[in-house]
Amino acid sequence: MSERNLDFDKITDRYNTLSLKYDYAARRGMPEGLLPLWVADIDFPTSSYIQDALKAQTEHGIFGYSEPLNSYFEALAGWMKSHHGYEFKNNETVRTPGIVMALAMAVKAFTKEGDGVLIQTPVYYPFYEVIEDNRRVIVRNPLKQNEEGRYCIDFEDFEKKISENGIKLFLLCNPHNPGGSVWTAAELLKIGEICEKHGVIVVSDEIHADYVFKGKHTVFEKVKESFKDFTITCTSPSKTFNLAGLQISNIFIKNPAIRRAFRKEIDAAGYSQLGVMGLVAAEAAYRHGEEWYLAAKKYIYDNILFTEEYIRKNIPGIKMIRPEGTYLVWLDCKGLGLSDDELDRLIINKARLWLDSGKIFGDEGKGFQRINVAAPRKLIEQALGQLSAAVNTL
What we know:
Helices cover 40% and strands 14% of the residues. By secondary structure, it is α/β, with parallel strands linked by helices. The protein has a 5-stranded mixed β-sheet, with helices on both faces.
């Protein structure tokens, strides 16, 4: 058997497939007919090995309560060790339907109402939601951009915010979404030592770890031996293999007390077993998905370079920050001289695109737009052409 789904130029019709990305424009307050490149899912069919594994499970015909067997842990361990040099014991894992749920469970487990939770802004918008919706207080450590546009950490402000607000929980986005920074071991060491000094639990969202194009992804917990005592590492095949709809994430927690408290919140939420299809897909991905993953990663990086060159040549009012990681491109549109509402109207009504408005990532995201380039090149070229035509009307 060989991998069949390597034609990434092929456009797959995703309309009328219950796709959040394609079928829910009106329900999300958007006009119909926009080209959607917003939410972080991929517009390629996933690995054929995953399809085959799901088909076999479907043909079995029974979908009862499920738990992973040793083969699942072996596949997961093989992927984590070969790609990230990370090792774990089976009992150090907790499975959740998604990383956002894991973030929310950590907020509930390790803080109380009214407590501050630290984030680095601009950042993935569910970080805000799991804090505010649980009646905690958002504490921001704004990232700084260097001369090349790379987002960097203000360590002095980071420690100041922890001290001034009695922070006990920090949500780390590693690699960073939407800025695209792949945090170095040195940066993570500095963060970790500050958190260790002040008794802060770190929840490291590493969902984009497999899409790194510059440098190397560093698992936060691995930077220093003692970091395992206060870290919750969140991983998932959902971004790597486009499996978000199958609801499967693997959370690694080495500290038994932290793991018990985390599990207790999951139990309190009434959640127990994952769906069998997610378990089957994850095992197939981690065991057989390497060829598809490497080919998809290369194609996506070529899309990033294509987008960068197109914008440089054709849309001088917009600056693209080349991501070190993730397939999400952060566009600095401040050079267009538009307010955020005017920018949104330009993107939606004139360019006929559905992107993620920068303002939903926090105040520091104002003037930006996020575009997902994990799609066939023709769709990226079409989107950029529509964007260029819209900008030329200004």
